Structures are given as structure tokens and as C-alpha cells.
Amino acid sequence: MFGYFLELALRSLKRSKALTALMVLAVAMGIGACMTTLTVLHVVSGDPIPGKSQKLFYPQIEPRDEDNGFYTKGEPPEQLSWRDAMALLKAGRADRQAVMTGGMAPVQQADTTQDPFFVRARYTTADFFALFDVPLKYGHAWSATEDDRRERIAVISSSLNDKLFHGEDSIGRTVRFNGADLRVVGVIETWRPHPHFYDLNAGNYAEGEDVFLPLGTSRDIHAPRSGSRDCWGKGHQVEENTLETADCVWVQLWVELDTPARVADYKAFLVHYSEEQLAAGRFHLPVNVRLRNVMAWLDSQKVVPKDVHLQVWLALGFFVVCLVNTVGLMLAKFMRRSAEVGVRRALGASRGAVFAQLVTEAGMVGLAGGVAGLLFAVLGLWLVRKQPDQYASLAHLDLPMLAATFGMAIGATVVAGLLPAWRACQITPALQLKSQ
Amino acid sequence: MLDIRPILSTLHRHKVTAVLLVLEIALTCAIVCNAVFLVRQRLDWMQMSSGVDEAHVVDVRPVAMGGTLESHGRIEETLASLRNIPGVEQVSLMNQIPLGKESWNAGIKLDPNVVAPAMHVANYYGDNAIPTLGGQIEEGRDFRPDEYAWLDDITSGRTDVVIPHVVIVTRFVADQLFHGHALGKVLYLDDIPMRIIGVTRNIVRPNVFDRATTYGSIFLPVHMTEGLGATYVMRTKPGQGDSVIKAAAAKLRELDPNRVILSKRHFSEVRDAFFASDRAMANLLVGVCVALLVITALGIVGLASFWVSQRRRQIGVRRALGATRRDVLRYFQTENFLLATMGIALGMVMAYGINIVLMVHYELPRLPAAYLPMGAIVLWALGQIAVWAPAHRASNVPPVEATRGN
């Protein structure tokens, strides 16, 4: 029966090509716009590190002498001072922990005359790679001992490895970073979590770094820092190379806590640490700690751009207009065929059969609209990728969105077909036959 | 206008289709009004004045490998060499440039005993920064050479150097904090009292966290050192920007081969980059508006064609009874006008509804009333254009149609 309905639907659609094309176009444009914006939303609000985001936490404490209320609005600062970060790192109360900050410096292969170029770098501690499940292609991460010895070593990205060493196993080779020679100990696979959750100072959707080196080493070689630094009290009068002792926050700490009990313990530890510092006269403001996991942290930082939400609403509005349009056209189309429906009813087709046939026809418009909508979405995403925003380059159609496109197109047009089909079923066969 | 009653009774018989068309026009009207308003907002924002002599300012940003250049003599030498490049009017090594996105900020206080700063401002450093940017001192004077101190001397806490105690503020800061009479007043920066010796025409911040303080900038007599985002800013003679950029980049490398040029830009590029995502959003909104209007027009064409083909016999009867082609044409045009009017009326209510939601969630101002008549005119015109072809076809129905079956 369904096959017969399909055949009838095809014939009917072929009969009024312009109207059919118009309906398909309307559905396709609506679907295309929705899918484009929803894919962007999906990309920008996604979990940057699925499977682990619930276990990674970002400790914040209040070390300042006054809260000027502008940047933080009742929240502790977004980063930690060197002294606090090191104290929390050495305490080792979490399953894994890493302190880090970002930088940018010229890099070149040590033994060539190749011109240096700028890369983004991360200065961090040993656990970074295990903490964030960073996949290694060659070699291995460094150890805490190498951190302590401030060894001149680096882990590089595979794209930098391609540029400097033509993709070969470069373990043991040397890169010159900001004028200092560093021995490559590891090469990571392509790794770009988005949002760039572990350090939003780099930009919410920044690309991954190309060079990773021990935090201590970065201080020794005066590697340039990039990112924010917020100071208070005498902290304003401080130089970059004495930041370790300054009243400034400029590093981030991430910790891994595997069970809720560990999380509670860690939070208690942060409170205890703050109280100790307060008692020692180092801290001045009331204890104020935060321990957010990845998604809560991103949420608190309002990472998803407002424009993206606006675009989704705009596209949904557009889609609704397209659907209303389609309902109107379909109604016109079905009513035009009153005579045909009358004949079929008179020949014994049940109301249900006529209804099913018309809904099938609507569904076919949806299917065609879905296919064309997919093309529009691909085109739309291509346009999005041409945009200047940092997240733009991430906008690609993925499988769930692809399935959603068809689901939405067919679902919406079938719903849009219900009213016209129902109206058409109400036709009294006798009346239609008489008017012939 | 005589046709209105029969039209209404016909529409009554096609309630569902008529309602759908009205709804479509209403939604389109509501969305287009708000989208155009959003575009207007973006365009206004993008046309904001930076206070910089945009056509003539360029900047070249070097970074030295293996540590920053901090020798004062070398920086003075570099500045002098850049000043000698043909086409250069002024040079400054600045810590940041307007609309450059990376910013140095500070809280200024009027009373050192109050904890919360009176305003958060961007603090510009650099020799002759204001004339280099093409800014204008409106009141008071620019800094004297003896008022400057080196940034690294200040941050290293040397006590034997002069620490600046004078400051120049923008017109905006003067108006906001001193009711326009800022000259000679004192503000506190890191609890150090600073006397205001000049007020400059508004110069925008490098980034705008809060549009209420777009022009919250101050200038300090500080000689910048290289590194930390410092960039050589030059004001050039007309048409010499390209050659100056090229010569300056070459000069910087020649003076110190350890330097790498991180960026070299005309100010127009800085401005374009700053507004890039606003421009993209405005384009998107315009695109959606056009698509909506096209879809709505096509919908009108489709439904009107359907009605015309359904009413061929009636039209024939009317023609046979003496109606002219013009009358038939006018009938469909009036019908469309009525539907559009209903759609527009409903659309205006919806437009305000959407605007209220946008006001709550996106901090948008109220939709100015002028948008509604404009929206109405656009949709009326759209309806008339769309209905023209079907109506024209209807007017061509011959009177003989009345005698045919169906």
C-alpha cells in the first residue's frame, strides 16, 4: 500500500512542478538555516573533553587584599598566583594536577638557517598530558623530576613537527624556542579541545599550542607570557621576571578528582589553605573558594557567544515562516485536487487511506526538502567557516546533525501536511462528483 | 474600495488559507523589523569614531628573540631612525593601540580611601602618543619631555627616577568624573596622586568590555620598552602608509637582526579586525531578511495563483456581467492589501513581543516606532508585487469562462 501511495505522491508532485519546487525550496531554506546555526551552537557549546570533563576541576581562591568588584563581582580571581599554585601543586591532594600558563615566542630548528616563526606555547607541569589525555605520537611526556630540574626539554605538536622535521620521529632533536635550545622529548597527535577550556585567556576557541615546556624552564629562559595578569597592592610595580613573588594572579591550576568524596575533600582543603593564609596574614579577604568542573567553569565564563544564540532563534523564526508557507501551499495543492479525492472516495477509498496518501506526499516534500536543506546547510557552514570568529573554523557537519536534519525536515513537513490532509479528507464525495 | 465586502466574504470561505497567509506576513514583518533594527545597531556601533587619524596611522610590532630589548639608548636610537623614514610625521613606541584588542587597564580613584575605583580605564603609554595617533588636546597641554619616565624603571621600583605624577584624560573621562572640569584636578592610580594636565578629544579603548566606558582612556608620560605587546606606531604623510610600513619593518630588522616582526598593519586593518564579527553578523541578518521576504513573496504568489485558478468561473461570471479587466485586477490587489494589512497589524504586536525578549536577554534598546511604518510599507509593496502576476492572469480570464463547466 505504501508503495502505491509513494507512486501516487510522485505523480501528483510531478503534475505541479512549480508549486512542488516552491515547497521543497521553502523547507530546504528553513532546514538549511536551522541546521547551520544549530551545528554552530552544537560546536561552540560542546563538551571539550568528553568522558573526563566531570572529573576535571578548576580551583579558585581569594588571595587579594581588596576586591574592587569590577572584574570578579563576588567571585575569586580567575587565576592563581605562583605561590598559591605551587603550594597547591606540591600538596598533591588531587589524583592528578598541573599548573600552567600560556605564551607565544619565535621558534626555529636549532641547526638550520630557517627563519624563525611565532608559535603559541604552553608552560606547564608534568601531569598536563595525563590530566587531559593528550595523545602522544612519539616519545613521552616529562616527569616531575624533570620539572624540578627545570630541564631544557619540550613536547611539540605534530603540525610543528611537520614544519620543522618533516613529520619524522624528532625525539632527541633540538628546537630553538625564544633563543633557547630545547630537546624534543615528545610529539603529540593533533589535539584541539574546543572551547579552549584550560586557559580561556588564549581565546575561547583558540587553537591548540605547538610547544609545551616545563613551567620552571620557561621562567629560566624568560619565555614571553601571553594571557592576563591581574595584580593588586604592590603587584602593579613588578617586572615579568619576578612574577613568582608578586601579588599577581597569572597561572592556572587544573586537578583531577575521581570521586565525589575526593571533590568534597579537595574543596575542604582549599578552604583550609585559605584559612591558613588568612591566619598568616597573607590573605585579607574572607575565604572564598570555587571548585568547578569543566562544563560549570565554561558556563561561569559565559563562553558561548551571545550572537550564536541569537542566530539560532533567528533561524528557528525563519524556519517557522517557511513551514507556515509550506502548510499554505500544501493546503492549496490538496484542495485543488478535491475532485480527484472525491472520485477516489466514491470508488471506495477510505478516509484513512486518502489521509495516509496525502501525508505520504507531504513526507516526500520533506525528504526532498531535507536533501536540498542539507546542501544549504553545507553551503551555510562553508560560509560560517569564512567568518572571522575564532570558532568559525570548527563549524563542520557531523553525523548526529546530519540525522537531525532529515528527522527535522521530514517530521516538520509531515506535521505541516496533517492539517491540509485532514481538510482534504473532509470532502464529501457526492458533492464533488456533482459539481463535475 | 467598493470591493471590500465581497472580498471579505470570499476570504471567509477560505479561512484557513487566509489565516496562514496572514500569519506568514505577520511573522515576516515581526522578524524583519527586529532584524533590521539589530543591523542598524551593529552599523551604528561599527561607525563609532576611534579618535585616531585612521587614514594615516600604521603600526609595526617587533618581538626580540631571547628576551626583550630594554636598553633605553637602543630604543631612542630606533625611534630616531624611524622618524627619519621619508613619509613619517610622528613615531611612538606604545604599549597598546586603540581597537587593538589587547589592553592595559587600571582602576582610577578620586578618593584613595574608597576601595572601589571610580572608573576602569585603558592606560596608554608612549612618547608623543597623542600627536602620533592624530589625537587633539582640547584643553591644557601635552606632556613635557622632563615628565616622562621609563616603564622598566617604574616597575623595578627604582626610587632615584621621576615617577610620573601627571596624566592626560579623554573628554569622556573628564565629563564623567569631573563634570567637564578636569584640568588641574587629581586622580589616583594605584594610590599615587596624578594631576590632570590635559584633556584630549575622545580616543577609544583597545577593547571594550563595557560600552558605557568605550572612551575610558588615559595617557601617562611613560617611555615604553619593547616586548609586552609594545608596538611602533607611526603617523604618515598621505598615501605613504605602505612604503612607511615596509621601510620601518626593514629598519627594525636592520637595527637588531634578533627582532622578528610580529605584525605590520594600517590602522584600517586594526579597525576592520575589531569589527569583523559585528560585520559578519550584520551580513547574516541582512541575508536572512532577504530570504524571508523572498519566501513570503513566493508564498503569496503560490496562494494567489491557487485562488485565481479556483475562481476562474466566478471571474468569468463577473466579466460577463460587465466587470472590466481593471476591476478584476483591482479585486485581487485589494484582497492582497487587506491580507497584508491584517498581517502587518498582527506583525507589529509580534515585533514588539520579540523586541521585549531581546531587550531582556541581549540588552537591546526598545524598537523605535519608526520601524513599524517602514515594515508596513515594505510588506504592502512586497504583497502588491507578488500578487501582480496572478492578478494579471485573473484579469485575462475571458467572460466566456462563465459558460464553461467547472
Helix content of chain A: 40-55%
Radius of gyration based on Cα positions of chain B? 33 Å
Globular, elongated, flat, extended or rod-shaped: what is the shape of chain A? Answer: elongated
Structural class of chain A: alpha+beta
Keywords (chain B): Cell membrane, Membrane, Transmembrane, Transmembrane helix
GO cellular component, one term (chain B): plasma membrane
GO molecular function (chain B): transmembrane transporter activity
Protein name (chain B): FtsX-like permease family protein
Offer a concise description of the structure.
The complex is a heterodimer of chains A (436) and B (406). Chain A is an alpha+beta fold.
Pick out its properties.
heterodimer, A: 436 residues, alpha+beta, 2 domains, 6-stranded mixed beta barrel, two-stranded antiparallel sheet, 14 helices, 12 strands, 48% helix, elongated, B: 406 residues, 6-stranded mixed β-barrel, 4-stranded antiparallel sheet, 50% helix, FtsX-like permease family protein (chain B), cell membrane (chain B), Macrolide_Exporter_MacB (chain B)
Plain-language structure description:
The complex is a heterodimer of chains A (436) and B (406). In chain A, helix 2 crosses helix 12 (351-385) and helix 12 runs antiparallel to helix 13. Helices cover 48% and strands 15% of the residues of chain A. With 436 residues, chain A is α+β, with helices and mostly antiparallel strands. Chain A has 2 domains: 1-47 and 306-431, no CATH class; 56-301, no CATH class. Chain A contains 14 helices and 12 strands. Chain B is an alpha+beta fold and 406 residues long. In chain B, 50% of the residues lie in helices and 17% in strands. Chain B has 11 helices and 13 strands. Chain B has helices at residues 4-13, 15-46, 72-83, 129-133, 151-155, 171-178, 241-255, 267-310, 312-320, 325-362, 371-395, and strands at residues 57-64, 88-94, 105-109, 119-125, 137-140, 149-150, 166-170, 186-189, 192-200, 217-220, 222-223, 231-236, 259-266. In chain B, strand 8 and strand 9 (192-200) form a beta hairpin. The radius of gyration of chain B is 33 Å and the shape is elongated. The model of chain B has no long low-confidence stretch (mean pLDDT 89).
